[in-house]
Amino acid sequence: MALKAASLLPSSISVYKEGKSIASFKETGFFGCSFSLPNHLKADCNYSLIRSKELRRRELPIGTIKAQTATTTPAIAEAGPEAKKTLRKGNVIITGASSGLGLATAKALAETGQWNVIMACRNFLKAERAAKSAGIPKENYKVMHLDLASLDSVRQFVDNFRRSGMPLDVLVCNAAVYLPTAKEPSFTADGFELSVGTNHLGHFLLARLLLDDVKQSDYSSKRLIIVGSITGNTNTLAGNVPPKANLGDLRGLVGGLNGLNSSSMIDGGEFDGAKAYKDSKVCNMLTMQEFHRRYHEETGVTFASLYPGCIAETGLFREHIPLFRLLFPPFQKYITKGYVSEEEAGKRLAQVVSDPNLAKSGVYWSWNKLSSTFENQLSQEASDAEKALKLWEISEKLVGLP
Ligand code: NDP
Ligand code: PMR
């Protein structure tokens, strides 16, 4: 299988394992890119052991890597000393829990018996069916309607949740859309380009509104988690696959991303669906850090982001061409070795929700080959505090926050 996949990816890029080249391949129309990488990025697909060891020796500010104590994925199965302080179950909202990472995380948490999972989904029936067929214990989850592509729906969801009277301990902003083959932009109910509108602006409003609820929680560790990705980080090999994320000076966002009197892209450029997704992930990671800077000290809430690994079989790739969907999983399994199953990725995100060892705020978590966590380093753009502030202020205006 490795050979087969490799033969479909003839060579101008090398994939390195612990400093040694393990495979090389070159541009194809299928993977659609031609680029060369600076040497310092070539080993990045192996973003694991070497790097975390090296980083353990350095003290870096928030938003960049810092060494850390590794914990392994199964940690969520046991309640740590912190969790034992709290007698009641934790309540966690997970957006986009009807498939992929969100569903696997809901299952991993619900199965511990220590969490009520609120599955915040745009398709109620699909979510109910998914929860049932995944075997999530009925008493440990509830589906609530949320369409992130509509600011009214976000506000309605928050009202409905508050009316339920449940406390909120953890919010997980997980849902996303990826439209790599779209020739023209599509738009949210409020007229924002759909990928940034859903993945960033919908979540931005949701997280801003629900922060008050999380603040009030008496749970032992309250958290707000926004799922990020390697592909938004241009300090990695994956993040250098064109089109690269780049928010520029945010001129398109200032214009409202409506594709009419302003560009549909954050940087003001031509529409590109793959870039819009990667840009939205940069927004997710910048937003997490801005939350941390503004609210961590005052509220004690832990803000975190993560790259759970390449979950190559999820619904995220539903809009991609069939050949991509066929070849992407073996490519990630046998060539980049970045592949993780939905189940494993779900355990990883569940760990960021509940592991007492991952209570540090302002961190972008990743996992090494042994499935141990480490504090990963974000790209220059994804850790740019000035850009994060500007993004925050423009996003506030767009979603109608004072
Ligand atoms: P999926 O497509 O399987 O899951 C995405 C979820 O988002 C679905 O439940 C989908 O709902 C939901 N969703 C989409 N649009 C909306 C909306 N408007 N309102 C509410 N929910 C919506 O993809 P993944 O599980 O792969 O993606 C989950 C997260 O993981 C994303 O943030 C993604 O960026 C991130 N990620 C994924 C990686 C991967 O390799 N797959 C790698 C790194 C990060 P529905 O079921 O109705 O379509
Ligand atoms: Mg990528 C270590 C190398 C690595 C990793 C971990 C990923 C993850 N990718 C890697 C390398 C490469 N990819 C290389 C060398 C190529 C060129 C052949 C390549 C191509 C590629 C494409 C066309 N990769 C992709 C795509 C997508 O359409 C996916 C994407 O960008 O979605 C936004 C994707 C991804 N690669 C990943 C991950 C995790 C993705 C999915 C995305 C995400 O959610 O960010």
UniProtKB/TrEMBL annotation:
Provide the Gene Ontology terms for cellular component. chloroplast
Q: Which UniProt keywords apply?
A: Chlorophyll biosynthesis, Chloroplast, NADP, Oxidoreductase, Photosynthesis, Plastid, Transit peptide
Write down the superkingdom of origin. Eukaryota
One GO biological process this protein is involved in is:
photosynthesis
Molecular function GO labels: protochlorophyllide reductase activity
Q: List the SUPFAM superfamilies hit by this protein, alphabetically.
A: NAD(P)-binding Rossmann-fold domains
List the EC numbers from the record: 1.3.1.33
Q: What class of enzyme is it?
A: oxidoreductase
Recorded hits in Gene3D superfamilies, A to Z, give:
NAD(P)-binding Rossmann-like Domain
Pfam families in the cross-refs: adh_short (PF00106)
Localization, per the record, is: Plastid, Chloroplast
Q: Which chemical reaction does it catalyze?
A: chlorophyllide a + NADP(+) = protochlorophyllide a + NADPH + H(+)
Q: What family, per the record?
A: Belongs to the short-chain dehydrogenases/reductases (SDR) family. POR subfamily.
Q: What does this protein do?
A: Phototransformation of protochlorophyllide (Pchlide) to chlorophyllide (Chlide).
Q: What is this protein called?
A: NADPH-protochlorophyllide oxidoreductase
Tell me which species this is from.
Answer: Jatropha curcas (Barbados nut)
The record lists the lineage as: Eukaryota, Viridiplantae, Streptophyta, Embryophyta, Tracheophyta
